[in-house]
Design brief:
Distance between the termini: 150 Å
Mean pLDDT: 76
Low-confidence stretches: 132-151
Shape: elongated
Structural class: mainly alpha
Number of helices: 4
């Protein structure tokens, strides 16, 4: 049975919390839960005291609902002078409160039987609301927190990381030289020959200054 920092058994602290729930002492339940959460900080114990605290809150929440709903209805019946109906309503409220306490008693007894065996209380509808690193149903309370690596555990051999060799450098592509376009050679025109005047009738060359063709005698314009 594991003990905490102050020599108190974790199982005993959980039992005290649920006993205060059964005695309907919400302040005492809150003090025990605060001690467990702040001083001990054990995952299994934290789960038990939180379930005890939630069970207390659920019980007093049910009483508050009965008081608000049926209390207002009882005041209305008294206002309309329906005293017999008001008395019957008070009896109904008393029966509902007794049933609520019986339900609380059953849940606390079930939780105490499990906690005394070192198991999780697992209060119905409340155990599933709590999440954390705690043992599952049917397991005993943990003997230590966290995972401990054994001293003589063989160490894994060092495996060097395989490095992929870089790809070989690519050969530079040959640069194709572009030939310059051919330069156009300017054509030099020679001197124009003088135009020869011809006869319109026989097409014979006529010297400058003559008005008649020497071949056919045609007048040249």
């Amino acid at each position: 049975m594991k003990k905490g920092n102050y020599g108190i058994s974790f199982t005993a602290i959980a039992i005290i919390a649920f006993v205060f729930v059964l005695l309907r002492q919400p302040q005492s339940v809150l003090l025990v839960a605060g001690f467990a959460l702040l001083a001990e900080r054990d995952p299994w114990l934290n789960r038990q005291v939180i379930q005890a605290l939630l069970l207390t809150m659920a019980y007093y929440g049910g009483l508050l609902v009965l008081e608000v709903v049926f209390g207002g209805l009882s005041d209305f019946l008294g206002w309309v002078d329906a005293y017999r109906a008001q008395a019957n309503l008070v009896r109904v409220v008393s029966v509902l409160q007794d049933l609520l306490f019986i339900g609380l008693l059953v849940l606390v007894i079930m939780a105490l039987l499990k906690v005394m065996k070192g198991q999780d209380a697992n209060v119905p509808f409340l155990g599933s609301l709590i999440q954390g690193d705690v043992p599952s149903r049917g397991q005993r309370a943990p003997e230590g927190q966290g995972s401990v690596t054994p001293r003589n555990a063989p160490e894994k051999p060092y495996e060097p990381v395989k490095q992929t060799p870089p790809p070989p450098p690519r050969a530079p592509e040959p640069v194709q030289e572009v030939a310059p376009p051919p330069t156009a050679v300017p054509v030099v025109e020679g001197p124009k020959e003088p135009e020869v005047k011809r006869c319109p009738a026989c097409h014979s060359p006529v010297q400058e200054g003559l008005k008649f063709c020497t071949e056919c005698g045609e007048k040249i314009l």
